């Protein structure tokens, strides 16, 4: 299991105060990494659960929020998890709901990858990027146009960056979580019809938990994934197999 160890590595996890980001941060820490838990809200609760961790205040409405940190510290693992969703019928969807989602989910993700890639290439090192995609990287969804566009974009950028950087020792991959019980999906679970329709289609017969995503993140962040490039790994209880 030594190739799964993250001992001696530093990992930056965005949106690490809650949900999937928190679970990934705790798991990377459990695998031995020093974790920088980044978020616009306090990450103190996450840091408290990890042997070696620190919090960093960052708002990814600014696409360059992580640039200073990535330019000044050696970070070996980047998990781009911060993301938002806005729901409305497409005919009513506002420009603000388009821009806010694209800015955080896609623009900030790209420029954070860029800052990470620049730093790794400059020091001639190696690195691992794990982007958090979605089932809506593959499917259309409904009433979430900017989210779907952003997550299709995340899958595309993951492959593009893998094509450019694999030869330099940077693994760029993504995880596509299925329906996971977090703040992001509160509205779906509160709607009895949507909740039932979703549950009926999940072969595993239950919503995922944030912890269900953590193992895939540790794998993709580790040397065990050394030859994995440009993959979008579904962790979805079988949803896409249906
Ligand atoms: P969540 O509980 O709402 O977490 C979202 C995280 O992103 C929070 O930490 C949030 O911080 C952070 N964030 C949002 N905007 C930010 C900004 N401008 N700057 C810094 N941090 C920001 O939802 P989640 O389900 O864990 O989502 C995590 C990721 O998984 C997202 O990329 C989401 O699209 C993706 N995902 C989720 C599901 C699911 O079923 N839950 C499925 C597929 C993909 P605040 O707490 O401060 O808002």
Question: Which features characterize this protein?
Answer:
single chain, 242 residues, alpha/beta, Rossmann fold, 2-deoxy-D-gluconate 3-dehydrogenase activity, oxidoreductase, NAD binding, SDR_fam, 3-ketoacyl-ACP reductase
Give a short summary of the structure.
The protein is an alpha/beta fold and 242 residues long. The chain has helices at residues 19-30, 44-47, 67-72, 95-123, 145-165, 186-190, 192-201, 211-221, and strands spanning 10-14, 34-39, 53-57, 77-80, 127-132, 170-177, 232-235.
Fourth-tier CATH superfamily name = NAD(P)-binding Rossmann-like Domain
At the fold tier of CATH, the topology name is: Rossmann fold
User: What strand line-up does the widest sheet have?
Assistant: 3-2-1-4-5-6-7
User: How many alpha or pi helices?
Assistant: 8
Descriptive overview:
It is built from eight helices and seven strands; from the N terminus they run βαβαβαβαβαβαααβ. It has one domain (2-234): Rossmann fold (3-Layer(aba) Sandwich), CATH 3.40.50. The mean pLDDT is 98. Helices cover 40% and strands 16% of the residues. A seven-stranded parallel β-sheet has the order 3-2-1-4-5-6-7, with helices on both faces. The protein is α/β, with parallel strands linked by helices. Bound molecules: NADP nicotinamide-adenine-dinucleotide phosphate (NAP). NADP nicotinamide-adenine-dinucleotide phosphate (NAP) binds at residues 15, 17-21, 39-41, 58-61, 81-84, 104, 132, 134, 177, 179-180, 182-185. InterPro entries: 2-deoxy-D-gluc_3_DH, NAD(P)-bd_dom_sf, Sc_DH/Rdtase_CS, SDR_fam. This is 3-ketoacyl-ACP reductase. GO terms for molecular function: 2-deoxy-D-gluconate 3-dehydrogenase activity; NAD binding. Belongs to the short-chain dehydrogenases/reductases (SDR) family.
């Amino acid at each position: 299991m030594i190739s799964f160890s993250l001992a001696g590595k530093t990992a930056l996890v965005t949106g690490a105060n809650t949900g999937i980001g928190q679970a990934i941060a705790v798991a990377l820490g459990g695998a031995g990494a020093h974790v920088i838990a980044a978020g616009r809200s306090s990450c103190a609760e996450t840091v408290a659960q990890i042997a070696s961790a620190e919090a960093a205040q960052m708002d990814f409405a600014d696409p360059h929020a992580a640039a200073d940190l990535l330019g000044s510290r050696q970070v070996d693992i980047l998990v781009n998890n911060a993301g938002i969703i806005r729901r409305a019928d497409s005919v009513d969807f506002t420009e603000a709901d388009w821009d806010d989602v694209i800015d955080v989910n896609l623009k900030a993700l790209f420029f954070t990858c860029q800052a990470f890639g620049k730093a790794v290439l400059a020091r001639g090192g190696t690195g691992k990027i794990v982007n958090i995609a979605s089932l809506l990287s593959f499917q259309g969804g409904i009433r979430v146009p900017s989210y779907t566009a952003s997550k299709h974009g995340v899958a595309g950028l993951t492959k593009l960056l893998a094509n450019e950087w694999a030869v330099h020792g940077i693994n760029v991959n993504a995880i596509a979580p299925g329906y996971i019980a977090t703040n992001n999906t509160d509205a779906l679970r509160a709607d009895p019809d949507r909740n039932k329709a979703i549950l009926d289609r999940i072969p595993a017969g239950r919503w995922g938990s944030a912890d269900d995503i953590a193992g895939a993140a540790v794998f993709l962040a580790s040397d065990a994934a050394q030859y994995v490039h440009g993959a979008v790994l579904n962790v979805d209880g079988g949803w896409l197999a249906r």
